[in-house]
Specification:
The chain is an alpha/beta fold. It is built from 14 helices and 15 strands. The protein is 34% helix and 23% strand. α5 links the parallel β6 and β7. It binds N-(iminomethyl)-L-glutamic acid.
Length: 401
Protein backbone atom coordinates (compact mmCIF):
# COMPACT_ATOMS: atom_id res chain seq x y z
CA UNK A 1 0.00 0.00 0.00
CA UNK A 2 1.29 3.47 -0.86
CA UNK A 3 1.09 5.73 2.21
CA UNK A 4 1.29 9.48 2.59
CA UNK A 5 2.52 10.74 5.97
CA UNK A 6 1.57 14.40 6.31
CA UNK A 7 0.88 17.27 8.70
CA UNK A 8 4.46 17.08 9.97
CA UNK A 9 5.56 20.32 11.64
CA UNK A 10 9.27 19.55 11.31
CA UNK A 11 10.47 16.74 9.09
CA UNK A 12 14.10 16.17 10.06
CA UNK A 13 15.45 14.18 7.14
CA UNK A 14 19.07 13.95 8.37
CA UNK A 15 20.11 14.40 4.75
CA UNK A 16 21.08 17.28 2.47
CA UNK A 17 17.40 18.28 2.47
CA UNK A 18 17.73 19.23 6.14
CA UNK A 19 14.60 20.05 8.14
CA UNK A 20 11.42 20.57 6.11
CA UNK A 21 8.59 22.60 7.63
CA UNK A 22 5.08 21.26 6.94
CA UNK A 23 6.77 18.17 5.52
CA UNK A 24 5.35 15.04 3.98
CA UNK A 25 6.67 11.65 2.97
CA UNK A 26 5.34 8.88 0.74
CA UNK A 27 6.27 5.20 1.11
CA UNK A 28 5.52 2.34 -1.27
CA UNK A 29 4.10 -1.13 -0.59
CA UNK A 30 7.54 -2.34 0.57
CA UNK A 31 7.91 0.48 3.09
CA UNK A 32 10.50 2.28 0.98
CA UNK A 33 10.42 6.08 0.68
CA UNK A 34 9.40 7.20 -2.81
CA UNK A 35 8.94 10.90 -2.17
CA UNK A 36 9.87 13.36 0.58
CA UNK A 37 9.44 17.14 0.68
CA UNK A 38 7.18 20.04 1.63
CA UNK A 39 3.51 19.05 1.55
CA UNK A 40 2.69 21.99 -0.75
CA UNK A 41 5.10 20.57 -3.32
CA UNK A 42 3.68 17.04 -3.46
CA UNK A 43 3.43 16.28 -7.21
CA UNK A 44 -0.06 15.43 -8.52
CA UNK A 45 1.04 12.06 -9.91
CA UNK A 46 2.48 11.02 -6.53
CA UNK A 47 -0.67 12.23 -4.74
CA UNK A 48 -2.75 10.18 -7.19
CA UNK A 49 -0.85 6.97 -6.29
CA UNK A 50 -1.61 7.24 -2.54
CA UNK A 51 -3.83 4.52 -1.00
CA UNK A 52 -3.77 5.75 2.61
CA UNK A 53 -3.16 9.13 4.23
CA UNK A 54 -1.71 9.31 7.74
CA UNK A 55 -2.18 12.66 9.48
CA UNK A 56 0.56 13.13 12.08
CA UNK A 57 -1.18 16.04 13.77
CA UNK A 58 1.47 18.72 13.39
CA UNK A 59 4.18 16.73 15.17
CA UNK A 60 7.91 16.58 14.52
CA UNK A 61 9.28 13.51 12.72
CA UNK A 62 12.81 12.10 12.74
CA UNK A 63 14.32 8.96 11.24
CA UNK A 64 13.84 6.07 13.69
CA UNK A 65 16.79 5.75 16.04
CA UNK A 66 19.48 3.31 14.91
CA UNK A 67 20.72 1.61 18.08
CA UNK A 68 24.01 0.16 16.89
CA UNK A 69 25.24 -1.31 20.20
CA UNK A 70 23.14 -3.49 22.52
CA UNK A 71 23.48 -6.77 24.41
CA UNK A 72 19.85 -7.95 24.49
CA UNK A 73 20.28 -11.70 24.89
CA UNK A 74 20.50 -12.10 28.62
CA UNK A 75 18.59 -13.09 31.70
CA UNK A 76 19.13 -11.95 35.28
CA UNK A 77 19.56 -8.68 37.05
CA UNK A 78 22.57 -6.88 38.53
CA UNK A 79 20.85 -4.11 40.45
CA UNK A 80 22.92 -4.93 43.55
CA UNK A 81 26.13 -4.42 41.56
CA UNK A 82 24.76 -1.08 40.33
CA UNK A 83 23.84 -0.04 43.86
CA UNK A 84 27.34 -0.85 45.08
CA UNK A 85 28.73 1.24 42.22
CA UNK A 86 26.61 4.18 43.23
CA UNK A 87 28.12 3.77 46.70
CA UNK A 88 31.65 3.97 45.34
CA UNK A 89 32.64 0.53 43.96
CA UNK A 90 34.15 0.66 40.48
CA UNK A 91 32.92 -1.32 37.48
CA UNK A 92 34.84 -4.44 36.53
CA UNK A 93 34.33 -6.78 33.57
CA UNK A 94 33.98 -9.70 36.00
CA UNK A 95 30.24 -9.01 36.45
CA UNK A 96 29.70 -10.48 32.99
CA UNK A 97 30.09 -13.94 34.58
CA UNK A 98 27.04 -13.31 36.78
CA UNK A 99 24.91 -12.69 33.72
CA UNK A 100 26.48 -15.69 32.00
CA UNK A 101 25.11 -18.00 34.72
CA UNK A 102 21.59 -16.58 34.46
CA UNK A 103 21.64 -16.64 30.65
CA UNK A 104 22.89 -20.20 30.41
CA UNK A 105 20.08 -21.43 32.61
CA UNK A 106 17.32 -19.38 30.96
CA UNK A 107 16.57 -21.67 28.00
CA UNK A 108 15.41 -20.82 24.49
CA UNK A 109 11.80 -19.94 25.24
CA UNK A 110 12.60 -17.45 27.97
CA UNK A 111 15.36 -15.80 25.95
CA UNK A 112 12.98 -15.45 22.99
CA UNK A 113 10.31 -13.94 25.20
CA UNK A 114 12.75 -11.50 26.82
CA UNK A 115 14.04 -10.47 23.42
CA UNK A 116 10.57 -9.73 22.08
CA UNK A 117 9.81 -7.63 25.19
CA UNK A 118 13.06 -5.73 24.71
CA UNK A 119 12.40 -5.11 21.02
CA UNK A 120 8.93 -3.77 21.92
CA UNK A 121 10.63 -1.46 24.43
CA UNK A 122 12.92 -0.15 21.69
CA UNK A 123 9.98 0.53 19.38
CA UNK A 124 8.20 2.37 22.21
CA UNK A 125 11.17 4.73 22.36
CA UNK A 126 11.42 5.42 18.63
CA UNK A 127 14.14 2.89 17.75
CA UNK A 128 13.67 1.12 14.42
CA UNK A 129 17.05 -0.51 13.75
CA UNK A 130 18.75 -2.67 16.37
CA UNK A 131 22.11 -4.37 16.61
CA UNK A 132 22.62 -6.91 19.34
CA UNK A 133 25.46 -9.12 20.51
CA UNK A 134 25.85 -12.55 21.94
CA UNK A 135 28.40 -12.69 24.75
CA UNK A 136 26.60 -13.97 27.83
CA UNK A 137 26.69 -17.63 26.82
CA UNK A 138 30.47 -18.05 26.70
CA UNK A 139 30.37 -21.65 25.55
CA UNK A 140 29.58 -23.01 22.12
CA UNK A 141 26.08 -24.24 22.89
CA UNK A 142 24.93 -21.08 24.65
CA UNK A 143 26.54 -18.66 22.22
CA UNK A 144 24.94 -20.49 19.28
CA UNK A 145 21.55 -20.34 21.00
CA UNK A 146 22.00 -16.62 21.70
CA UNK A 147 22.86 -15.92 18.06
CA UNK A 148 19.93 -17.97 16.83
CA UNK A 149 17.48 -16.26 19.20
CA UNK A 150 18.85 -12.83 18.22
CA UNK A 151 18.35 -13.57 14.55
CA UNK A 152 14.59 -13.78 15.24
CA UNK A 153 13.83 -10.06 15.12
CA UNK A 154 17.16 -8.23 15.33
CA UNK A 155 18.49 -6.36 12.28
CA UNK A 156 22.21 -6.95 12.93
CA UNK A 157 23.53 -9.84 15.01
CA UNK A 158 27.09 -9.70 16.37
CA UNK A 159 29.10 -12.63 17.71
CA UNK A 160 30.80 -11.60 20.96
CA UNK A 161 32.12 -14.91 22.26
CA UNK A 162 35.23 -12.90 23.16
CA UNK A 163 33.42 -10.91 25.85
CA UNK A 164 35.19 -12.51 28.82
CA UNK A 165 37.11 -15.70 29.51
CA UNK A 166 34.51 -17.65 31.51
CA UNK A 167 35.45 -18.49 35.09
CA UNK A 168 37.54 -21.64 35.34
CA UNK A 169 38.71 -21.59 31.69
CA UNK A 170 42.23 -20.94 30.44
CA UNK A 171 42.38 -17.89 28.16
CA UNK A 172 44.19 -19.63 25.30
CA UNK A 173 41.94 -22.71 25.39
CA UNK A 174 38.88 -20.52 25.44
CA UNK A 175 40.16 -18.48 22.50
CA UNK A 176 40.63 -21.67 20.47
CA UNK A 177 37.00 -22.52 21.16
CA UNK A 178 35.89 -19.00 20.13
CA UNK A 179 37.70 -19.02 16.79
CA UNK A 180 36.90 -22.70 16.14
CA UNK A 181 33.67 -24.48 17.08
CA UNK A 182 31.94 -21.41 18.45
CA UNK A 183 32.48 -19.46 15.27
CA UNK A 184 31.25 -22.45 13.23
CA UNK A 185 28.10 -22.60 15.32
CA UNK A 186 27.17 -18.89 15.24
CA UNK A 187 28.14 -18.15 11.64
CA UNK A 188 24.70 -18.91 10.14
CA UNK A 189 23.10 -16.27 12.38
CA UNK A 190 25.66 -13.47 12.74
CA UNK A 191 26.91 -10.79 10.36
CA UNK A 192 29.42 -9.19 12.72
CA UNK A 193 32.23 -10.17 15.09
CA UNK A 194 33.22 -8.17 18.16
CA UNK A 195 35.77 -8.41 20.97
CA UNK A 196 36.07 -6.72 24.38
CA UNK A 197 39.64 -5.43 23.98
CA UNK A 198 40.42 -4.25 27.49
CA UNK A 199 42.54 -5.15 30.51
CA UNK A 200 40.61 -7.89 32.32
CA UNK A 201 39.08 -9.16 29.08
CA UNK A 202 41.21 -9.66 25.90
CA UNK A 203 44.57 -8.12 25.01
CA UNK A 204 45.57 -6.75 21.62
CA UNK A 205 47.01 -9.97 20.25
CA UNK A 206 44.05 -12.05 21.39
CA UNK A 207 41.63 -9.48 20.04
CA UNK A 208 43.32 -9.40 16.65
CA UNK A 209 43.16 -13.20 16.47
CA UNK A 210 39.40 -13.17 17.10
CA UNK A 211 38.66 -10.40 14.61
CA UNK A 212 40.85 -11.94 11.89
CA UNK A 213 39.17 -15.32 12.36
CA UNK A 214 35.75 -13.71 12.02
CA UNK A 215 36.79 -11.75 8.96
CA UNK A 216 37.98 -14.92 7.25
CA UNK A 217 34.48 -16.30 7.73
CA UNK A 218 32.81 -13.22 6.29
CA UNK A 219 31.86 -11.58 9.60
CA UNK A 220 32.59 -7.85 9.71
CA UNK A 221 34.57 -6.56 12.68
CA UNK A 222 33.56 -4.12 15.39
CA UNK A 223 35.38 -3.56 18.68
CA UNK A 224 34.69 -2.69 22.32
CA UNK A 225 37.65 -0.43 23.04
CA UNK A 226 39.10 2.18 25.38
CA UNK A 227 36.22 1.86 27.86
CA UNK A 228 38.10 1.65 31.14
CA UNK A 229 41.48 3.09 30.24
CA UNK A 230 43.64 3.98 27.27
CA UNK A 231 44.67 0.90 25.32
CA UNK A 232 44.99 -0.73 21.92
CA UNK A 233 41.27 -1.00 21.04
CA UNK A 234 40.92 2.05 18.83
CA UNK A 235 44.21 1.46 17.06
CA UNK A 236 43.31 -2.16 16.37
CA UNK A 237 39.81 -1.27 15.17
CA UNK A 238 41.20 1.21 12.65
CA UNK A 239 43.97 -1.15 11.53
CA UNK A 240 41.56 -3.99 10.91
CA UNK A 241 38.93 -1.82 9.18
CA UNK A 242 36.24 -2.22 11.84
CA UNK A 243 32.98 -0.43 11.09
CA UNK A 244 32.91 0.91 14.63
CA UNK A 245 34.83 1.10 17.88
CA UNK A 246 32.56 1.50 20.84
CA UNK A 247 32.85 3.18 24.27
CA UNK A 248 35.95 5.33 23.42
CA UNK A 249 36.13 6.95 26.84
CA UNK A 250 39.90 7.14 27.15
CA UNK A 251 41.57 8.36 23.98
CA UNK A 252 45.04 9.59 23.11
CA UNK A 253 45.57 12.28 20.47
CA UNK A 254 46.87 9.50 18.20
CA UNK A 255 43.62 7.56 18.65
CA UNK A 256 41.55 10.58 17.64
CA UNK A 257 43.80 11.29 14.68
CA UNK A 258 43.59 7.65 13.55
CA UNK A 259 39.78 7.68 13.78
CA UNK A 260 39.54 10.97 11.89
CA UNK A 261 41.51 9.44 9.03
CA UNK A 262 39.51 6.23 8.85
CA UNK A 263 36.07 4.86 8.01
CA UNK A 264 35.70 3.58 11.56
CA UNK A 265 32.85 5.19 13.48
CA UNK A 266 33.37 6.12 17.15
CA UNK A 267 30.28 4.99 19.05
CA UNK A 268 29.63 6.71 22.35
CA UNK A 269 27.38 5.17 25.00
CA UNK A 270 26.31 7.95 27.36
CA UNK A 271 23.90 5.86 29.46
CA UNK A 272 26.73 3.41 30.17
CA UNK A 273 29.11 6.19 31.16
CA UNK A 274 26.58 7.51 33.67
CA UNK A 275 25.78 4.05 35.05
CA UNK A 276 29.46 3.25 35.53
CA UNK A 277 30.27 6.72 36.89
CA UNK A 278 32.85 7.46 34.23
CA UNK A 279 33.50 10.73 32.52
CA UNK A 280 31.30 10.91 29.45
CA UNK A 281 33.10 9.94 26.24
CA UNK A 282 34.58 12.97 24.45
CA UNK A 283 31.98 13.18 21.69
CA UNK A 284 32.49 16.94 21.20
CA UNK A 285 36.23 16.52 20.75
CA UNK A 286 35.70 13.63 18.33
CA UNK A 287 33.26 15.61 16.17
CA UNK A 288 35.54 18.64 16.17
CA UNK A 289 38.38 16.42 14.97
CA UNK A 290 36.26 15.20 12.05
CA UNK A 291 35.43 11.74 13.43
CA UNK A 292 32.05 10.17 12.57
CA UNK A 293 30.23 9.68 15.87
CA UNK A 294 27.33 7.36 16.69
CA UNK A 295 25.25 7.31 19.86
CA UNK A 296 23.88 3.95 21.07
CA UNK A 297 22.15 2.68 24.20
CA UNK A 298 24.38 -0.31 25.09
CA UNK A 299 21.37 -2.02 26.68
CA UNK A 300 22.79 -4.68 29.02
CA UNK A 301 22.28 -5.68 32.67
CA UNK A 302 25.77 -4.70 33.83
CA UNK A 303 26.60 -1.22 32.64
CA UNK A 304 23.54 0.27 30.94
CA UNK A 305 20.11 -1.17 31.64
CA UNK A 306 18.21 1.05 29.24
CA UNK A 307 17.19 0.96 25.60
CA UNK A 308 16.06 4.58 25.68
CA UNK A 309 17.74 6.39 22.83
CA UNK A 310 15.66 9.45 23.76
CA UNK A 311 17.59 9.46 27.05
CA UNK A 312 20.95 8.96 25.33
CA UNK A 313 20.33 11.76 22.84
CA UNK A 314 19.13 14.08 25.60
CA UNK A 315 22.26 13.30 27.63
CA UNK A 316 24.48 14.06 24.63
CA UNK A 317 22.82 17.48 24.35
CA UNK A 318 22.75 18.26 28.06
CA UNK A 319 26.10 16.84 29.09
CA UNK A 320 28.30 16.16 26.06
CA UNK A 321 27.97 19.55 24.43
CA UNK A 322 26.39 18.31 21.20
CA UNK A 323 23.78 20.42 19.44
CA UNK A 324 20.40 18.77 18.94
CA UNK A 325 21.15 18.35 15.22
CA UNK A 326 24.48 16.66 15.99
CA UNK A 327 22.95 14.35 18.57
CA UNK A 328 20.06 13.36 16.29
CA UNK A 329 22.46 12.69 13.43
CA UNK A 330 24.73 10.57 15.64
CA UNK A 331 21.76 8.46 16.83
CA UNK A 332 20.34 7.94 13.34
CA UNK A 333 22.74 8.27 10.41
CA UNK A 334 25.78 7.80 12.69
CA UNK A 335 24.35 4.50 13.95
CA UNK A 336 23.54 3.48 10.38
CA UNK A 337 27.15 4.17 9.38
CA UNK A 338 28.35 2.09 12.33
CA UNK A 339 26.30 -0.78 10.86
CA UNK A 340 27.18 0.09 7.25
CA UNK A 341 23.49 0.64 6.54
CA UNK A 342 23.61 4.32 5.63
CA UNK A 343 21.96 5.21 2.32
CA UNK A 344 24.07 5.96 -0.73
CA UNK A 345 22.97 8.21 -3.58
CA UNK A 346 20.21 5.80 -4.61
CA UNK A 347 18.98 5.50 -1.02
CA UNK A 348 20.31 1.95 -0.72
CA UNK A 349 23.13 0.77 1.51
CA UNK A 350 26.29 -0.95 0.27
CA UNK A 351 24.48 -4.29 0.14
CA UNK A 352 21.59 -2.98 -1.95
CA UNK A 353 19.13 -2.89 0.97
CA UNK A 354 17.04 0.22 1.66
CA UNK A 355 19.26 2.47 3.74
CA UNK A 356 18.58 3.45 7.34
CA UNK A 357 19.09 6.52 9.47
CA UNK A 358 18.13 9.14 6.90
CA UNK A 359 14.80 9.98 5.28
CA UNK A 360 15.68 9.98 1.58
CA UNK A 361 14.13 8.36 -1.48
CA UNK A 362 15.12 4.70 -1.62
CA UNK A 363 15.64 4.37 2.15
CA UNK A 364 13.31 2.62 4.61
CA UNK A 365 10.31 4.58 5.83
CA UNK A 366 11.49 4.27 9.44
CA UNK A 367 9.84 7.16 11.26
CA UNK A 368 9.97 8.40 14.82
CA UNK A 369 7.00 10.68 15.42
CA UNK A 370 7.56 12.83 18.49
CA UNK A 371 4.93 14.00 20.95
CA UNK A 372 6.27 17.49 20.25
CA UNK A 373 5.97 20.10 17.54
CA UNK A 374 9.68 20.86 17.74
CA UNK A 375 12.36 18.24 18.20
CA UNK A 376 14.34 20.44 20.60
CA UNK A 377 11.70 19.55 23.20
CA UNK A 378 13.34 16.13 23.47
CA UNK A 379 16.14 17.78 25.46
CA UNK A 380 14.08 20.68 26.82
CA UNK A 381 11.67 18.25 28.50
CA UNK A 382 14.09 15.45 29.47
CA UNK A 383 12.48 12.25 30.62
CA UNK A 384 8.99 13.28 29.49
CA UNK A 385 7.15 10.85 27.18
CA UNK A 386 8.63 11.85 23.82
CA UNK A 387 7.59 9.14 21.37
CA UNK A 388 4.11 9.37 19.84
CA UNK A 389 4.44 6.71 17.15
CA UNK A 390 7.09 4.56 15.51
CA UNK A 391 6.99 3.16 11.98
CA UNK A 392 9.44 0.56 10.70
CA UNK A 393 9.45 -0.02 6.93
CA UNK A 394 6.23 2.01 6.81
CA UNK A 395 4.48 -0.26 9.32
CA UNK A 396 3.33 1.12 12.68
CA UNK A 397 5.18 -0.76 15.42
CA UNK A 398 4.29 1.53 18.32
CA UNK A 399 1.57 4.02 19.09
CA UNK A 400 1.20 5.89 22.38
CA UNK A 401 -2.36 6.89 21.62
O1 LIG B 1 29.42 -2.84 26.60
N1 LIG B 1 32.10 -3.65 27.99
C1 LIG B 1 31.73 -4.78 27.84
N2 LIG B 1 30.48 -5.24 27.73
C2 LIG B 1 29.31 -4.54 28.20
C3 LIG B 1 29.10 -4.72 29.66
C4 LIG B 1 28.96 -6.09 30.04
C5 LIG B 1 28.53 -6.36 31.46
O2 LIG B 1 29.10 -5.84 32.42
O3 LIG B 1 27.61 -7.16 31.57
C6 LIG B 1 29.38 -3.08 27.81
O4 LIG B 1 29.41 -2.18 28.66
Amino acid sequence: MTQLFHNISELRTVSAAGTINNGALVSDKDGVIVWVGAFDELPDEVAASVDKKIDLGGRAVLPGWVDSHTHMIFDGNRAAEFEARMAGESYSAGGIATTMEATRSAGRERLEQLLQERIAGCHAGGTTTIETKTGYGLNTESEALAAEVASGGIDDVTFLGAHLVPPGAEAEDYLEEVVGPMLDAVEPYAGWIDVFCETGAFNEEQSRKVLEAGKKRGLHPRVHGNQLQQGPGVRLAVEIGAASVDHVNYLSDDDIHALANSDTVATVLPACDLSTKQDLAPARQLLDAGVTVAIASNLNPGTSYTSSMNYCVTTAVLQQDLSLDEAIEAATLGGAKALRRNPGEDGKDGQGRPGRGSLVVGASADLHVLNFTNAIELAYRPGMPATYRTYKDGVEVFSAA
